[in-house]
Amino acid sequence: YFILVDSYGREDVLQSMFNFDNSAMTAALKERGFIFPECAQSNYYHTAPAMASILNLDYLDHLGIASSVYETRAGYSKMAPLILDSEVIRKFRAYGYHVVTFRGFMGMIDIHNTDTYVSFEEDVNYLQRLETANFTNLYYETTVFEAGDELYELYPDPPDEAEQPLEERFQKVFDQNLYAFEALERIPTEIKGPKFVYAHLYSAHWPFMHNPDGSLRLPFSQKMSAEGYVAGIQFTNNRLLAAIDSILAHSEVEPVIIVQGDHNNGWVGNVEWSGKDRVKILSAYYLPDGGESLLREDITPVNNFRLVFKHYFGEPIELLPDVSYYLDPRTKKTKTAPKTCISDPGN
Fold this sequence. Notes:
The chain is α/β, with parallel strands linked by helices. It contains ten helices and eight strands. It has helices at residues 11-18, 23-31, 47-54, 67-71, 80-84, 87-94, 130-142, 168-190, 226-250, 304-311, and strands at 2-5, 98-102, 116-118, 195-201, 257-260, 283-286, 325-327, 334-336.
């Protein structure tokens, strides 16, 4: 299980920038056997380059993608082939694994050509489930929603700060957020045998739609606020722990689970924080049968599946040096980020 929680920052950044103590979540995961590398950082500062790197076990320059491609989002489409047809998924398929992916809200990161594709709109059976009934009143009391075919882009033009009713595109995000956690909980009981589950979750990403209990934040606003981000983290924590408990309780074989952010939240904070500190991410590994022996305190996501294929599949593959890149907010150029650790007060 590779659970990518979009925009989920590292514990020290949540504390320093949002005055939010996330130690209860990290303690709960540690109690379940997860290990947190002390100096966890992402390799890249946006979702598409992070995904392309992780799912292809290498840095983008080695994959033929120059930094100029992802310094502006106009070049992101060049990374789409690496994401939609990745080395990691090809490897798991070759090993006979059932591949599960979750709906993405940008075409280039929406990996839908897999054995199981988790999408609220496409799983019509979900409309008859008890979980949906529990939320129906909330949905329809707050908005008029009609199903459509347009995907909501996670990177639209900067939103205005005026409060407005919940539009169809936001309703789809809200529905998918709830459905993704419900699906993650039941996957171990409904899909038997070896499986690779790539669950990309957006509940901590703008638009900040959820109260900690999962209900819609009212009145809904597109405003990017620290309060909204923290509420999204709290909701994510509650549902993620429930999903992990279900995975651990119902897996036929003790699973490998990696929980990570792809980058930190970059919309709320000062100029420097939107640069170097953007790479400080949540990173937690559940590695049974000695897999933790390959972990190091500064391991980065590019090595996730190098570790997995080396330790669990015996492949002759080595871990790469761990390097993080950030976008200098002044020059708008990619630079190497310094390595920082949670215990370092000057990080």
